[in-house]
Write a structure and sequence with these properties.
Blueprint: H1 7-15, H2 18-29, E1 32-33, E2 43-48, E3 54-58, E4 70-71, E5 77-79, E6 95-100, E7 106-110, E8 115-119, E9 125-129, E10 142-147, E11 153-157, E12 159-163, E13 169-174, E14 176-177, E15 180-181, E16 183-187, E17 194-199, E18 208-218, E19 226-237, E20 248-249, E21 258-262, E22 265-269, E23 275-279, E24 285-291, H3 300-317, H4 321-326, E25 343-348, E26 354-358, E27 385-389, E28 395-400, E29 405-410, E30 414-420, E31 426-435, E32 439-440
Parallel strand pairs: 3-24
Antiparallel strand pairs: 1-2, 2-3, 4-31, 5-31, 6-7, 7-8, 8-9, 10-11, 11-12, 12-13, 14-15, 16-17, 17-18, 18-19, 19-20, 21-22, 22-23, 23-24, 25-26, 26-27, 27-28, 29-30, 30-31, 31-32
């Protein structure tokens, strides 16, 4: 199943309701009502098409007519904060991933420290796994961690490494398949199958268009790939930019697909469309969910914000081929979107609820994260607002997170992420979700 669209199609989609579109699809695909999720005022459409996929749409958030969730004011778990009583303080550098084990222990993967840190529920450091290096159990780089049901861990970075339940190194595999580099997106709970990503085709030289990623199942050998889907990866302009043969991201567009796993199911979305899709373990399309979100137009103040930031960037780094490719002027693009994406991030919690991070009003795309002074870290810290959906696709509503809190992991009761302290140091925290009546979830 492919997402194929262009800017004209996206603009028209924002004017035509998803309800009307699904009714049209039902007319040509022999849809029939689903017995799984009955229709009501909030969850207007649920139907099966001829392939067996469920088409679902929420016109209105459920929280508009009933109690809403909120986040507790005080963090229940804290790690990385200065504590004079701590015998083994850890000061994080670049937290890339967080996972929670059935025991309640919290694993923090830090890309700057190139190690995994395991904490108990109280935030006390239990063990450190790995370090920077080339030897067994060491990493060149790390990006994500996947706990397995037998207690072992998979760590993805430059290579794919496996550790047993005690944190001892077991094996390491280069992330290549058939001579090509691949990315590891996730693993099934028993870690017998892995979801991997390959870069597909992109726009032709001199054109703007979508590049695609191919998703496949494989095992630890990474040799045999069973393709699931092809999904958008980025909206690129493949222009005459030095050292950018694949193109540069177009402003006000997402820079990667949103791909998550829940059990053995794969959930994907492309932020330019208010829609997400669920693929079954066998790769068949199982569910398509849309909701009543409107794309905001790109205004003249938005364009001025881009121009102002681009001038500050070239003032700090100079005008040359590299800076022109990193932060092109708007007139360098053959076309620009007229509307902003709906969302730019996805997360699936332990219950299968889908969380989508709304596109921030002042966000320009990838160029917003480029530091305006040499040597400074990427500017990724900003307040975030998330839309929450039940696994069926019912739109629950919007949830504002604590200031400058980056959400990385969620259970049915807690949100785990990173927040900077008063000194600018990243601190890992967990906040309880208070559901509906205000009682803990």
């Amino acid at each position: 199943m492919e997402f194929r669209t262009n800017d004209r199609g996206l603009r028209s989609k924002s004017r035509i309701s998803a309800h009307a579109m699904i009714l049209f699809l039902c007319g040509v695909a022999s849809c029939s009502p689903s017995e799984e999720t009955p229709m009501d005022a909030e969850f207007q459409v649920s139907a099966h098409d001829s392939s067996g996929a469920i088409l679902a749409e929420s016109r209105r958030a459920l929280w508009e007519s009933s109690g809403r969730w909120r986040i507790a004011d005080t963090a229940e778990f804290v790690a990385g904060e200065f504590d004079a009583k701590s015998e083994t303080p850890v000061f994080f550098s670049n937290v890339r991933d967080i996972a929670v084990l059935p025991s309640g222990s919290v694993i923090v993967l830090d890309g700057g420290l190139v190690s995994l840190f395991v904490f108990d529920k109280a935030g006390r450091l239990l063990k450190t796994i790995g370090r920077k290096g080339d030897g067994p159990g060491e990493f060149k780089a790390v990006s994500s961690v996947f706990p397995c049901t037998d207690g072992s861990l998979l760590v993805s970075g430059r290579n794919l490494s496996r550790f047993d339940s005690e944190g001892r190194f077991v094996a390491r595999k280069p992330k290549t398949s058939r001579g090509r580099r691949i990315g590891v997106i996730g693993a099934t709970p028993d870690c017998t199958r892995y979801l991997v990503q390959e870069t597909g085709e992109g726009p032709r030289r001199g054109e703007r268009g979508l590049s695609y990623s191919v998703l496949s199942w494989t095992d630890f050998t990474l040799e045999s790939l069973d393709t699931i889907a092809k999904v958008p990866a980025a909206d690129l302009f493949r222009g005459p930019f030095k050292n950018r043969p694949l193109g540069v991201p177009v402003p006000w567009t997402g820079v990667q697909s949103n791909i998550q796993m829940h059990g053995e199911r794969v959930i994907t979305g492309w932020g330019a469309i208010p829609e997400w899709r669920v693929f079954a373990p066998d790769g068949s399309l199982e569910r398509v969910v849309s909701w009543g979100a409107l794309r905001k137009p790109i205004s003249n103040p938005d364009r001025r914000r881009y121009w102002d930031r681009q001038r500050l960037f070239t003032g700090a780094y100079g005008r040359n081929d590299d800076t022109h490719a990193l932060f092109p002027p708007l007139e360098a693009f053959p076309s620009l979107p007229s509307e902003k994406p709906v969302f730019d991030g996805m997360l699936v919690d332990s219950e299968g609820n889908v969380w989508l991070r709304r596109w921030p009003d002042d966000y320009l795309g990838l160029v917003s994260e480029i530091p305006l002074s040499p040597g400074a870290p990427p500017e990724t810290w900003r307040d975030s607002r998330w839309e929450v959906f039940e696994p069926t696709g019912r739109w629950l509503g919007r949830l504002d997170l604590p200031p400058l809190f980056q959400l990385l992991f969620a259970t049915s009761e807690h949100l785990y992420g990173v927040q900077k302290d008063t000194l600018g140091t990243p601190v890992v925290k967990s906040f309880r979700i208070l559901k509906r009546s205000g009682e803990p979830g």
